[in-house]
Specification:
This protein has 230 residues and is of the alpha/beta class. The protein has 7 helices and 10 strands. The protein has a 6-stranded mixed beta sheet. A two-stranded antiparallel ribbon has the order 7-8. It binds pyridoxal-5'-phosphate.
Length: 230
């Protein structure tokens, strides 16, 4: 990405899908644009056509919002971004534990997921990326198994995925992440989704009637969010 290029994200991103783009934007003089959120908690996708330009290089969007619960139509967003020649990153941190995702069908270029969202250890996770993109990208850290050969004069990088795995990896974490996913796979995600939806509808109905919500204040600081039912 070069000066003046654009990154499109949304107003409902977790800050971990905002800050890295702001950092690279500052470094390279890029522009970060936001797809707005409507009052009903959905993305204003009418704005997407205006936001996507020939300068858009990357669209990074969450599948499920951690703050609103909104499920975004990522297939549609990916299609539109690709039409403009941009690559798409999907933040699946709140989605992979709820839906079976097929990255080939979605045709996303990158997909990221945090292990601790499926009871795996913190610091573990998944980065999916299309092979051709990873082959074009340079390693971002040096050391460990990311090399094929090293001499005083020259280093030849290893093949994928080792090229991006500098240093001794978190082997124990990786094993437990695999086990956690295996464990989760025994459940019918559809059933869990239906149950969660039932809870959502129950809570929404209760909140609309005879109930309220607010902040618990200790001194001047808003410290704890609470909901009460009558
Ligand atoms: C939608 C979403 N994206 C990203 C993250 C950040 O993940 P991590 O805690 O692994 O940095 C979270 C964590 O809550 C999240 O909900």
């Amino acid at each position: 990405m070069q000066k003046g290029d654009e990154i499109v994200i949304t107003q409902m991103e977790h800050h971990s899908n905002i800050v890295p783009w702001q950092m690279i934007a500052e470094e390279r003089d890029l522009i970060v644009k936001f797809i707005p959120v409507l009052k009903n908690g959905e993305l204003d996708l009418n704005q997407l056509n205006n936001l996507l330009t020939s300068k858009t290089k990357l669209v990074a969007v969450t599948h499920v919002s951690n703050s609103l619960g909104t499920i975004n139509p990522i297939k549609e967003i990916i299609g539109k971004a690709h039409q403009k020649g941009a690559v798409v990153l999907i933040d699946a941190a709140q989605s992979l534990q709820h839906f079976k995702l097929n990255v080939q069908e979605l045709d996303c270029d990158f997909l990221v997921f945090s292990g601790h969202k499926v009871f795996a250890p913190t610091g573990t996770g998944i980065l999916f990326a299309k092979e051709n993109l990873l082959n074009k990208m340079p390693p971002y850290m040096g050391g460990g198994d990311m090399i094929k050969t090293v001499t005083m004069e020259k280093t030849e990088y290893n093949e994928l995925p080792h090229k991006f795995e500098a240093g001794t990896p978190n082997i124990a974490g990786g094993i437990v992440l695999g086990k956690a996913i295996e464990w989760l796979s025994q459940f019918d995600l559809k059933e869990i989704e239906e149950y969660e939806h039932e809870l959502l509808e129950y809570a929404t109905e209760k909140l609309k009637k005879n109930s309220g919500c607010g902040y618990l204040r200790r001194g001047k600081k808003q410290e704890q969010y609470f909901v009460f039912f009558n």
